Amino acid sequence: MGGLREVAAPFVVPGPAGVAIRDRLKGLTARDEEVLRLVGDHLGRLASRDLRARCAAGLEHDAGRWAERKRELTGRSSSRWAGSITKATHDQWGLARRGQAAHLQSLQAGIDTVRHRLSLPIGAKGTKKTPGGYRSEGEWFAKSRRLRVLEDRLERERASWEAGRVRVVRGGKRLLNTRHHLDDAGLSEDAWRHRWEAARRFLQADGESGKRHGNETIRVSLDGEVSIKLPVPLARLANAPRGRYVLAARVAFAHRGEAWRDRISANRAVAYRLHEDVGRGRWYLTASWTTPAVQVVPLSAARASGLAGVDMNADHLAAWRLDAHGNPVGAPRRFAYDLSGTMQHRDAQVRHALIRLLHWAKRYGLAIAVEDLDFTAETTREKHGRRRSFRRLISGMPVARLRARLVSMAAELAIPLVAVDPAYTSRWGAQHWQKPLTSKNRKTTRHEAAAVAIGRRALGHPIRRRTTPPRTHQSDGYGHRTVQAAPGAPGREGPRPHVPGPRSRCVPPGRGANAGDQNTHHRSGCSAEHETWQQGSLPLSL
Fold it and tell me: For a disulfide at 202, which of 47, 141, 441, 471, Cβ 3.0-4.6 Å?
């Protein structure tokens, strides 16, 4: 295809594997908050020690060491608390290893790019596929020094990877570094300390099928009563039998409450997590459980009644409805959101835009086609160089959050989600669809044309559109539809070579009485007039 990369086939996205709901603990007393902080701090210290032991074991860790860690924690808490702590530690260590592998790939990609540009002459032009040389000797010298820095970092990270060493901070690296910049963050030392301690607490328990209400450690009854199994050193704080503490607050779970009640009524496993929002001064309870794998609809069924192509952008979602044949129907839709402000505001904006999109698709019974985007390899400074605004743009796009939200919300409304390869959708959409869809009453944007391209790719049609055929019997003057077929393709419109056979009523070349001899025509001076088989004149009378 002229150097273009191969485009992957579209597929139907499977639904989410779990559910998480949250509710606020209203009506907590001062005693309740004190007990929660004491329990969380105690278990948080145990979790920190366990994480340190897991990181020290590195690649030599096995099931025996895991059991040894759990036995050590059981005496200071309980067997169930110990199981939750060791599982959380294992998950955190695995996440750190995956992040370390991604960092190694990013460093290697940056080194390869810098080496390539340093090997080119200064001022050499680049192409669409590869960048050119650096623009000045000063930039070349600075990048040569940066290459040495990247190589040193890669060597250190590779040694850590081979040794199984990871760097993990309970509470978050960002919050830890904020301690050195309190004035910039607008925090006092006491306020930062309060946030730091809240982030390092451990108050989460895994569910157990067959146990009462699906969890023996943090139990929530049908009427919303929350009780906690206290660790052994804090058993003196219990206000209920068997070393349990019952909170004064009640939970209701307005969102998916019926599914949660059905689950705990059958004593199926439900995991709970308690955490404090220091900024708001509130406590929350999060319930989560896994869902069985749902059989996704076939791709042909998702394409049956058409779909809506959606193009994700930095400030809006551009959507266009397409029928089963790939033709745009109606007017394009735009679902805007504002990503400035706090994280909660950005998350709410994304959620509201997706709700409007899903309700629109549900109204017409459409599936949704989106790009399978991944910008993790597109944000490096070595690839885009001085294009800082573009790097900030793609770094600020909430691709992962928007994708996770869209998958879960679409599964809840039973709307099929089709993912397509994002290669060339914006470029080809603008090339083939932006101008034809623009009229004096509507100006089609590049993003709306990309939505059409995404939808056509999800439907299995080529992105390029069929041009208007030439006028009848005037193909020589108006040209041919070269968009559909190459000049040598059979069946293409326009003059075609005669194929010998009975349908064309012609004989193969080089055969027949007159083959190659045009001298047989009855013309003046033709030698055929003097042959013996020349027809004589007709008699005038008998």
Answer: 47
